[in-house]
Amino acid sequence: MAWDGTFDWRQDTSVFARKWELYIKPENEIHVATAVVLDYGTQLHLHNEGYHKWYAESVLPIADQRENETDPIDLDKNIEAAKKLAELMVRAIFA
User: Can you give the pLDDT at residue 86?
Assistant: First the structure.
């Protein structure tokens, strides 16, 4: 069965950080990415659980999503940027 292109984002409330886990369900549930805001910045983690094509697990830093250096850091914008990149990357790998 092929992946139908839908994303299942779940917030991980067991940790202090803003953390979201991305799952897809081609045949069974596969954990493919984590978007997390940490003290030192926002990151996207790509996971490889052995489904479909092989790819290296990766950690990608996400730049602060603010317009000017003087603007405050917006953690919601940062996590949304990480989630958007995760969906783009997962679609490129699995579609």
Answer: 93
Max intra-chain CA distance, the chain:
49
Scanning the chain, the segments in alpha helix (DSSP H) are: 75-94
Q: What is the rounded CA–CA span in Å between residue 57 and residue 63?
A: 20
Torsion on CA atoms 15, 18, 22, 28, rounded to nearest 10: 20
Distances from the Cα of 73 to the Cα of 18, 25, 28, 60, angstroms: 14, 34, 37, 18
Q: Are 31 and 22 spatial neighbours (Cβ–Cβ below 8 Å)?
A: yes
pLDDT along the chain (95 residues), means of 10: 83 82 82 87 86 78 91 90 93 81
